[in-house]
Amino acid sequence: MADSAGIQQGSPAIGAAGLVPAAPGAGGTEGSGAAGGSARIAVKKAQLRSSPRPKKLEKLGVYSSCKAEGACKCNGWKSQNPPPTPPRTDQQSSTVNLQEPCRSCSHTLGDHVTHLENVSEEEMNRLLGIVLDVEYLYTCVHKEEDADTKQVYFSLFKLLRKSILQMGKPMLEAQESPPFEKPSIEQGVNNFVQYKFSHLPSKERQTIMELAKMFLNQINYWQLETPSQRRQRVPNDDAAGYKANYTRWLCYCNVPQFCDSLPRYETTQIFGRTLLRSVFTVMRKQLLEQARQEKDKLPPEKRTLILTHFPKFLSMLEEEVYSHSSPIWSQDFLAGASGGQIPIHTVISAPPVARPLYYSTSPVSLDPSICGSVSPARKTASVLEPNPVGEKRKPSEPLPHEENKRPRVVGDIPMELINEVMATITDPAAVPETSLLSAHSARDEAARHEERRGVIEFHVIGNSLNQKPNKRILMWLVGLQNVFSHQLPRMPKEYITRLVFDPKHKTLSLIKDGRVIGGICFRMFPSQGFTEIVFCAVTSNEQVKGYGTHLMNHLKEYHIKHEILNFLTYADEYAIGYFKKQGFSKDIKVPKGKYVGYIKDYEGATLMGCELNPSIPYTEFSVIIKKQKEIIKKLIERKQAQIRKVYPGLSCFKEGVRQIPIESIPGIRETGWKPIGKGKELKDPDQLYSTLKTILQHVKSHQNAWPFMEPVKKTEAPGYYQVIRFPMDLKTMSERLKSRYYTTRKLFMADMQRIFTNCREYNPPESEYYKCANLLEKFFYTKIKEAGLIEK
Fold first, then answer.
1. CB burial of residue 357 (10 Å; 0-12, 13-18, 19+)
2. 577 appears as a binding residue in the annotation
3. Higher pLDDT residue, 157 or 420?
4. Average pLDDT, rounded, for the chain
5. CA dihedral 234, 238, 241, 242 (to 10 degrees)
6. pLDDT confidence tier of residue 554, bands split at 50, 70 and 90
7. Is 92 annotated as a binding residue?
8. Is-catalytic flag, 123?
9. Is 574 annotated among the ligand-binding residues?
10. How far is residue 444's CA from residue 514's CA, in Å, rounded to a whole number?
11. Cα(338)–Cα(199) distance, integer angstroms
């Protein structure tokens, strides 16, 4: 299942207390060793799961009650020769004897594990994961000094211990289950962005969304202070309420980061305004102080964003957090009449993040003779694939499936004029450079610059059963498996590992400083004419630089080289927004018979497709668009210079003339004005009825008419009728047509136009409904012209 990193959720530069998740037992302090602790647990689990089955039984026997006859009350097997504490690293592991008696009840190890004889390896590995989580929590209980935290750890320890004994899944028993408050912090910040910044241009609003992402990420990885620490700092606060939220946070957000046998939730998705109020002031102060202290370490492209825009964003948000009358915390919030509330996961929500990232200064050279399967993106690296990913197609190079040049259309700008204008902007100084943090810069502009400087590289890699394995390739594949596992916590890690290392799958990897920071795993089906994208992820700390877009553009170029022009993927709710930005849609161009039985189906996911155009150099597409804009700008300036001629005024009105044709005004035609076409009005009511009925039937049968078939239901669009004063739909128009309401074509066209206008007023431009309105409107006017009701 494909997932995307979307927009950045955090800043890699800010390292204030609370940013890095603290390991259980940290007692509310900074978790500087958290990442290492989590990694050590993962390594231990991997080692234990790869052990022989008898060794696994011995480990589980320690936590399994005795099953011997006589109702033995022993709750766990104890070895006669317990290992030394701490265990010696040079000691060789002894063979496991299932007949070895228990030191406590004298029954054998086999009597303790009889219930595990027919248990599958997958279930055994799951239980072993819980065992290591139990041992880790046991250590935390003894190390933790705070009483409240220690009590929570001990409760979770008993819960996991019970799960092993009963061979069940750990289920937290609580009076309430997540989410604990609505709207959530994530929803509230979404509402804040809409409430305060919906009037901004899309590029500037994108910057605000990046700041919101950054803020949400800080909360998700913030280390809450213990209730006792808070009582000392804020004596008059609601201590009981904070303690309840602190306990929930430990159980559902903090501990599961390290004990993955427990279900994990993001703090911003299950907590609301109450928790945000309790941490906002301290968090804001520490974040800004840390940013000021480390300003010299910040990347230049991040400095303005963090030091200038982020403080202003936090100040405005603080007012809404502590205001008693702020509308953003209302569940019925609607951000004005300009377009309703944008769905939460398409604005500032991203999938669970993976961290951290590294910078690279030089390209990697690979030896193709010993690697599994690799295609470096840069020309300085060795090439195994015939066409490296990053190598740009030359203009003279024939494109696969190249179509004949399209005929010139009447009204096209002459090529002579285009060449003349191009000559004025070929000088780089003549084209204004956009800052990487500018609202007008392309999403992948920063990534493209870094690739040119050699900071990042793109390689298509894969496992191979036919060639000698290359250590670097295998390390990259392991790195990709880690990135995908962090980004897709609901996807089994074994499944991710199997696909990443499957020789039939390849992965376009994003490399920085020799380390993997993102990638797209895919499988090509050349005979069927499409490729399935399986996983897509970029580590969160780097996402604002446009790596996700640039990664997808490289993948498109790679497939055009291999003459595969269709992508298919199953996207979950987090990834749909990302894939839409990359040109994917739910309108699948590949015939169903071509992909059914070939691609993997995922429950709760949406099938999306993308059709590639072989004429487009995707990695340079934004540069081309930028140059085209400059050409249009120059052409407009030329046209304006031509029409700035001053024409004599009209003197005919002084002579008693009351009205003149518009086209007789001097200079009006030179501006490009044309008379509005007038359509014929049908005099015969029956003929008019028949014509309008035919047009309405065509419109209702169109594939994009589905959102407008019936009146909008209040339950589906809360607040719709507060925004739209004069609603209209195709069902109402059909009823009006039957009652002979439309006595003129203008009445009919006005109602139809109202449907499209209402849709664009209520829905945001990137929504499916907005696009349907545009396409259906174009179709409607085509039919109107064909019927002769307006001039073509």
1. buried
2. yes
3. 157
4. 76
5. 0
6. very high
7. no
8. no
9. yes
10. 21
11. 8
